[in-house]
Write a structure and sequence with these properties.
The complex is a heterodimer of chains A (253) and B (314). Helix content of chain A is 35%, strand content 25%. With 253 residues, chain A is α/β, with parallel strands linked by helices. In chain A, strand 7, helix 7 and strand 8 form a beta-alpha-beta unit. In chain A, helix 3 packs across helix 4 and helix 4 crosses helix 6. Chain B has a two-stranded antiparallel ribbon. Helix content of chain B is 74%, strand content 1%. The chains are: A alpha/beta (253), B mainly alpha (314). The interface between A and B is medium-sized, with 28 and 21 residues. The complex binds adenosine-5'-triphosphate and magnesium ion (MG). The site of adenosine-5'-triphosphate has 10 residues of chain A, from helix 1. Adenosine-5'-triphosphate binds next to helix 1 of chain A.
Chain lengths: 253, 314
């Protein structure tokens, strides 16, 4: 039996570099199961780069080099024998800009399960995902209309529902609210609080209040390095590193 | 000097403030000149188009005065230059159709494969090697393609099909297919590249393989542009002249056979223009009747093609 709280995702000495420079340097951290972790830091500090390396989204750019380990279920995701699409199936992602497929609302959700031959009643799956994403009531009468007819906030919730449809273990969210109005933002924050029961969630955010509201843990990055990682209450009340305090108080970045 | 600038400054201050907002304060002769040149160049192209359309229209009108348009469009005998004259254009349409069908049958699948490979799979170095080859293919003069058909493709085909004539629709269709391949693949490549990378990422993030992303996301998202590419390619194949004249010969033929010599609409126009058909007579005017038909078809295709090209935005 493990005494330490089990990690859903454990990052060990992870570095990521683009053609010319290193964007993430030697980051090691343990993201706890069924917790919400907020990743904060000034623009360009490597938050998105870190997040994308956790489900191998860097694979498509041959100039990106990743070294170190990401351990998920006792396996290194960058190991030789790993099948990247399956990694992404288990570790889903929601992007900064809502990016629904130019298909119907229904197909947006069903496409992922369908290509992955997931069995079961598809109608039911679509409904339950839309319910979890707090979108069902708004779209139940127009499931077969184009997803592009939805508002930005609805589109983002659809993207969350789409990620949920794969029934992942971990959901990575890169500034999911940055393109949204306060109401949609509140809606998605509530959603994250609900999803925490079943999923491990990592959220990149620029909004300190949001980080404080929704997260259990906070990871503060600066210039590609992990500066501080700890429980949200501790980070916001008594950060160990002066830099963290300065950033949280809005003194730079 | 100094007092001069001072005076100017004073003057400016004395001017009513609103004066600076007026348009005439800011008119610049370079702007005017540029606008003039650009609009001249533009009107030149419009003028040229109009002249050609008017010319074809006028002569075609004269032609259809002598030959019934119904007989022309539905007749199955094309023999305008020798007695007894027959003015049914369908044999030429069949010839053009054979060439278009075969060339599209070659260029379309190949073009889509090449484009899919280039846009989705090829690494940058491969892309930068293949692209110039396609451009060279596009730069070969069409008469060379005709010669290539006659001296290389046809003899090869004759080994396979001994019944094949020296001039035949098959070799013409094949070389036209090769000729339009660069255009098709480049238009398809544009179509695939126009699909937002965010959509592909969304697909990958759901555990899709690159084939699934291509099949399920990229292809449907670029469907309209692909259709536009097909239409523009058809219109190009239809208008191809030199290669088909050389390769397919000048025998109007209703038989729908790739093995035999045919004549396309364009090849007929060449025949009349090069021959010693006296200007003014019906025989000479036939060429305008055919040109009007050809123009009508390609015009509709192009309009459709460009309209669909723009329809991808949503
Ligand atoms: N595709 C790329 N190629 C080269 N450099 C990149 C690329 N993407 C990001 N970078 C660089 O890597 C560094 C980290 O970028 P990243 O996008 O991870 O920052 P971020 O913390 O997410 O910033 P933001 O808060 O603005 O989204 C930046 O300096 C950026 O310029
Ligand atoms: Mg970012």
């Amino acid at each position: 039996m493990n005494v330490t709280p089990s990690c859903a995702l454990e990052v060990k000495g992870l570095s990521v570099s683009y053609a010319s420079h290193r964007a993430v340097e030697e980051v090691s951290v343990c993201f706890r199961r069924h917790r919400v972790a907020a990743i904060i830091g000034p623009s360009g500090c490597g938050k998105s780069t870190l997040l994308r390396s956790l489900n191998r989204m860097h694979d498509f750019d041959p100039t990106v080099k990743v070294s170190g380990q990401v351990v998920f279920e006792n396996q290194d995701l960058y190991g030789r024998e790993i099948h990247p699409p399956t990694v992404r199936k288990r570790i889903g992602m929601v992007f900064q800009k809502p990016n629904p497929f130019p298909k119907s609302i229904y197909k947006n959700i069903s496409w992922g399960p369908w290509i992955n031959h997931m069995r079961g009643d598809m109608d039911q799956r679509v409904e339950s995902c839309l319910r979890k994403a707090a979108l069902w009531d708004e779209v139940k009468h127009r499931l077969h209309q184009s997803a592009l007819s939805l508002s930005g906030g609805q589109q983002q919730r659809l993207c969350i529902a789409r990620a949920l449809a794969m029934n992942p273990d971990v959901i990575l969210m890169d500034e999911p609210c940055s393109a949204l109005d306060p109401r949609s933002t509140a809606c998605i924050e509530d959603l994250i609080a609900d999803l925490r029961e079943k999923y491990t969630i990592l959220v990149v955010t620029h909004n300190m209040q949001q980080a404080k509201r929704i997260s259990d843990d906070v990871l503060f990055m600066y210039e590609g390095r992990l500066v501080e990682f700890g429980p949200t209450t501790q980070i916001f009340s008594q950060p160990r590193v002066a830099q963290t305090q300065a950033y949280i108080q809005g003194k730079f970045g | 000097m100094e007092s001069g600038t001072k005076a100017a400054r004073l003057e400016l201050v004395e001017e009513p403030v609103g004066e600076l907002l007026l348009r005439r304060q800011w008119v610049n002769y370079k702007d005017v000149l540029l606008k003039l040149c650009l609009s001249l160049a533009t009107s030149l192209t419009v003028l040229t188009t109009c002249t050609i359309v008017l010319l074809i229209g006028k002569e075609a009108f004269a032609f259809f005065h002598m030959v019934s348009i119904v007989d022309f469009l539905l007749g199955t005998q094309w023999q305008p230059l020798i007695e007894p004259q027959q003015y049914g254009v369908l044999p030429l349409v069949v010839g053009s159709t054979l060439v278009v069908v075969l060339s599209m049958g070659i260029a379309l699948p190949l073009g889509v494969f090449v484009a899919a490979y280039l846009s989705e799979y090829a690494s940058f170095p491969i892309r930068s090697v293949v692209k110039p080859f396609l451009e060279i293919l596009a730069g070969i003069p069409t008469v060379v393609y005709g010669y290539f058909a006659l001296t290389f493709v046809t003899p090869q085909l004759q080994q396979l099909f001994p019944a094949m004539e020296v001039f035949n629709a098959a070799s013409a269709g094949i070389v036209v297919g090769i000729m339009i391949l660069p255009m098709v693949s480049s238009l398809c490549d544009d179509a695939f590249c126009a699909v937002a990378p965010e959509l592909k990422e969304a697909g990958y993030s759901l555990g899709a393989t690159s084939y699934e992303v291509f099949r399920g996301i990229v292809l449907p998202a670029s469907a309209f542009r692909l259709a536009a590419a097909v239409i523009l390619a058809v219109s190009r194949a239809l208008g191809e002249t030199m290669a088909v004249t050389l390769a397919a010969g000048a025998t109007p033929n209703m038989e729908w056979s790739f093995l035999k010599s045919i004549q396309t609409m364009t090849a007929y126009i060449v025949e009349v223009s090069l021959g010693d058909t006296p200007a003014g007579g019906v025989a000479y005017l036939t060429c305008y009747g055919v040109a009007a038909l050809l123009f009508g078809i390609t015009f509709v295709l192009n309009v459709l093609g460009y309209r669909w090209m723009r329809r991808t935005a949503e």
